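stuck on whats below:

***
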Amino acid sequence: MPSSIPQLKYTAPVFVLLSIAGFYFIVLHMVLSHAPDRFLEVHEASMVPLSVTPKLPISILDKLFTPLVSFFVAAFGDVGRTSSSYPITLDFVWSFGAAIQLPLVEASRPGASSKWLLTIPMAWGILYQRVSGGWVLPLWLLVWMQSRSRAEGAVIEKLNAESILAGWWIGHTLPAMAMLIPGMPSFTSAPIWIAFPILMSLGQQAYLALARFVPSISNGKNGSGYIATQLVYLSSLSLSAIAHAHVVIIPGLAATDVPSTMSDSNAFYNKLTGLLGHIYAHYVPPSFAIPSPQTTTAITGVQHFVQFDVLIVFTAVWIAGLWDLALRRRQHRTSVGEIRWLVRSALLLLSIGLVFGPGAPTAGLFAYREKMLEDDRHRPEPDHTEKDDENLIITIESPPRSPRSPHTPSFKRKMSPYHDQ
């Protein structure tokens, strides 16, 4: 059952405001704090060439991707991935994957062409990779909220869904694994992962091309792609949770020392408060003011960028996901207690995000949405001939008249003297 499309006067202020916040706290803060200059200094001191195409210099590619290379070299380009910014960047990459896969998935949903901006996930990817997701993704979410394809929620065909899964692993997941493995030597070339928006689209198109030559792939290509779509979400959910446990939860528990003389209840309380403090410092920037250029380093610049990107991106994605589900609940006449449901759902997302990272609940949220869409497709259409109690019209008909008995008195209307005879 399709949901409704909310009025632009409600969606535009929310997502435009989040986009403006992304521009201010990420792009403007980076420029005014001179953080990109600090990234470039680390890049120049490394073994990574300043050109992303050293053998065949292409200026437009260098202008597009060299700042990204500088950022990731500054983040964890040292030997052994021991930089203090490595944990927050690793957690960011895997969590962020749950958000950046949404344009790839929704571009293949039937009806996406009604909003042509939804059909160019590679262009959106290049934009948010180059200037930050916090600035760009809220704008994509605004277009998505106003789209007919979101409202109708049609199933993605099997072949297209499989190509999304292939593109996701070929273009994002495998290159990220190669870049993020702990203990690796320092970078000597630009990590290929930085081009993941292009690689994901190329991987998707390669799978579709392969299907034309391999009959076993193309068999049933027009069937339901529900399982393959869920595998896309499951991939990001599991990888985000594993990465979060590795670089946030385990170190946070290990960082809190508990005296051996302390009781078990107090020891548990100390561990829990220590872990929550570690998580808070991991995600919340120490200041919302523009960092001073004099005190900004490459590491603090990376941390500032990542923390604000995570806060804004996942706030926008969770708002859009819950908004969509609320509209669908309303279509099923389950909007009773809607505010309470929204509050409980938001708290659930936040709680799961603290334990498993923001990427896991995001993937879970959209996997649940896909399950709801699948249930709707198999739900029988309501019988509109039946009316509910509110619309039931009861007609009381008088019994048929019987022939007048000769004993029945006759009541004649008294005629007015002014009545025309």
Observations:
- The two ends are 66 Å apart (CA to CA).
- Residues 8-378 form one domain.
- The chain has 15 helices and no strands.
